[in-house]
Write a structure and sequence with these properties.
Blueprint lengths: L2 H15 L18 E8 L3 H12 L4 E5 L25 H14 L23 E2 L4 E2 L4 H14 L3 E4 L9 E4 L2 E6 L5 E9 L5 H5 L4 E2 L5 H4 L24 E3 L2 E6 L27 E2 L5 E2 L13 H8 L9 E4 L3 E4 L21 H24 L5 H7 L3 E3 L20 E2 L7 H4 L8 E5 L3 E3 L3 E4 L5 E4 L2 E3 L5 E4 L13 E2 L8 H7 L2 H21 L8 H10 L6
Parallel strand pairs: 1-2, 1-8, 2-5, 8-24
Antiparallel strand pairs: 3-4, 6-7, 7-8, 9-17, 10-11, 12-16, 13-16, 14-15, 18-23, 19-22, 20-21
Helix pairs in contact: 2-12, 3-4, 3-12, 8-9, 12-13
């Protein structure tokens, strides 16, 4: 070991022991923040993070959740209450327990504040929303989901340090291919035997030097049909079905492009790019007068942002309300629908790698765009009268997101970084064209990507690109290798959200029940790695499989 290496090693030891700050400065006894230590450290506040923490605690390990979020549960408690489930029979373990706890809540009279239980439509996706036979409920209000996560944390006595943001530049200490400790921007340091990155962004994974990808791979990378640029593919209804001019003065290129229309070439079909599918907020809205707050008008409101929608309405298109999906108590989980809707297409490309400050700007831009959209439809005179009259019956739910202006606290990060790990899940595994080794859970939802870009076709009219919906033809297995980095990159990290997968495969895997499944499986593997004093890559799969089956996970 060189003298320089010795100095770095001794400095690292002093940081871990608490005698020096993360920058190498000695800390006084008065100002020193003690290092927190646990068997397992989980970074993130998502549904996967809390599921993993519950599993770790029930397995007898100490665990700390280091959460940048104040509210726990990610999208599951952030507005996505009309759960994207696919085949519900493959949702087991703690994920199923979550939906059973939701069912328990709605089985009480107290749960039905604004609506009688018997009035609720009870229609889910192929099975009843309230499945009495299996004691599960798949559709719920945001605050109900958050309460389930908080109940888990309280019952299991899990330490959750909230509003703790990883120091992405200098906060990950590595030694011999392992994470030794992580430090947050507040100066708190956490050491552990095993770490989990359960964020939507994959910040810990990236800071630890693990390989990852952002954007769409070209068709040739993994031999996939549905990856890369997909010009000319028109799935779902989220495209312009009529000829709509993208220019401020219709048909006049010299007048300039309307906002959120790209003048760049969309790229050759099937080619890779660094663009990602659009984000939005999943809105909890209500038409119940006693619980309704009118849509707020953002300070920077500009009707020009919604000119394309006005032109769509002029063609007679009337499917604006199609994704106002009903959840209990006269509320909705409102999702993107149509050619111009809540998806803020093209405005999130730099989000995965962006600084915290830049991400806040992107999130605020999305919030203002979406608030302006709601205001536009409810108030602009160009909106057809029947649509506007109906829209004026809706507003934000007064009893949801009460500390955030009744606006969701979590933006829908549909995709950010994706690890390139020991095994990469692709559409070939999801379609059962290629075998998947070492199952640790199952998915089943359609391979689903929202639009990626809005461009000008050769004929001069506007179109969206990137929206894909392809069936997996039944459930598929997810490989343990997709949760672990390559061994030469990091030996004690598991990644149950930004899993190792291609863009289009992630389009199916990225569902909240699957994240809960993968969080539990990752924590189970972490426990085995600790007990065997081995790396996450060398966990005995047969033992892991046996444990997962005993815990109710569905593996095949």
């Amino acid at each position: 070991m060189t003298q320089s290496s010795k100095i770095k090693y001794l400095t690292l030891l002093l940081v871990i022991m608490g005698f020096m700050g993360p920058m190498g400065c000695k800390q006084s006894e008065k100002n020193r923040i003690p290092i927190a230590t646990a068997d397992i450290i989980i970074y993130g506040g998502t549904s996967a993070a809390i599921s993993a923490a519950v599993e770790a605690k029930r397995s007898g390990k100490s665990v700390i959740v280091v959460s940048p979020d104040v509210h726990l549960g990610g999208l599951s408690s952030g507005g996505l209450g009309f759960t994207d489930t696919g085949d519900k029979s493959v949702i087991g373990g703690l994920a199923r327990e979550f939906y059973q706890r939701v069912w328990n809540h709605y089985s009480t009279d107290e749960a039905w504040v604004w609506q009688k239980k018997e009035e609720y439509g009870n229609k889910g996706q192929g099975t009843p929303a309230m499945d009495g036979e299996n004691r599960t409920m798949w559709i719920f209000e945001p605050h109900v989901a958050e309460k389930v996560f908080e109940d888990w944390v309280r019952e299991e006595e899990i330490q959750v340090d909230r509003n703790e943001w990883l120091n992405r530049e200098q906060g990950v200490a590595m030694k011999d291919g392992k994470i030794v400790s992580i430090t947050t921007l507040s100066g708190k340091t956490y050491s552990s035997k095993i770490f989990l990155d359960a964020t939507y962004e994959g910040d810990l994974m990236a800071a630890a030097g693990v390989s990852y990808h952002v954007g769409r791979e070209g068709k040739e990378v993994y031999g996939e049909e549905w990856n890369g640029v997909q010009t000319g593919v028109l799935h779902h209804k989220h495209w312009f079905q009529s000829d709509i001019s993208p220019y401020r003065v219709p048909g006049d290129p010299s007048s300039g492009l309307l906002p959120r229309v790209s003048g760049e070439d969309p790229g050759e079909k099937y080619s890779g790019d660094d663009k990602i599918q659009a984000y939005c907020f999943r809105m909890c809205m209500t038409n119940h007068p006693e619980n309704r707050i009118p849509f707020p008008k953002p300070d920077d409101y500009d009707p020009l942002n919604y000119e394309l929608l006005a032109r769509v309405f002029e063609t007679g298109r009337k499917d604006w309300f199609e994704k106002f999906d009903a959840v209990p108590n006269h509320k909705t989980d409102t999702n993107n629908h149509g050619p111009l809707s809540s998806d803020n297409i093209g405005m999130n490309y730099d989000y995965p790698e962006a600084s915290y400050e830049r991400r806040k700007e992107i999130i605020m831009e999305h919030e203002n765009y979406q608030k302006g959209l709601l205001w536009f439809v409810a108030n602009d005179p160009r909106v057809p009268g029947d649509l506007q009259t109906e829209m004026q019956k809706w507003g934000l739910a007064k009893d949801e997101f009460t500390d955030n202006g009744n606006w969701p606290h979590q933006i829908y990060v549909r995709e950010a970084r994706r690890m390139i790990g020991e095994f990469v899940m692709t559409e070939n595994e999801l379609l059962k064209k290629s075998p998947t080794p070492n199952s640790i859970g199952m998915g089943s939802y359609t391979m689903d990507s929202h639009n990626v870009q809005r461009y000008i076709k050769p004929d001069g009219f506007v179109q969206n690109e990137g929206d894909i919906g392809v069936s997996t033809n039944g459930p598929y297995t997810i490989s343990y290798g997709s949760l672990v980095p390559k061994k030469d990159e990091c030996k004690n990290l598991l990644v149950p959200v930004c899993v190792s997968s291609s863009h289009i495969a992630f389009g199916s895997i990225r569902m909240e029940p699957v994240f809960m499944i993968l969080g539990q499986s990752a924590a189970t593997a972490a426990v085995l790695a600790i007990d065997a004093q081995t790396t996450v890559q060398e966990v005995d799969y047969d033992k892991l499989r046996g444990l997962l089956l005993a815990k109710g996970q569905i593996l095949e």
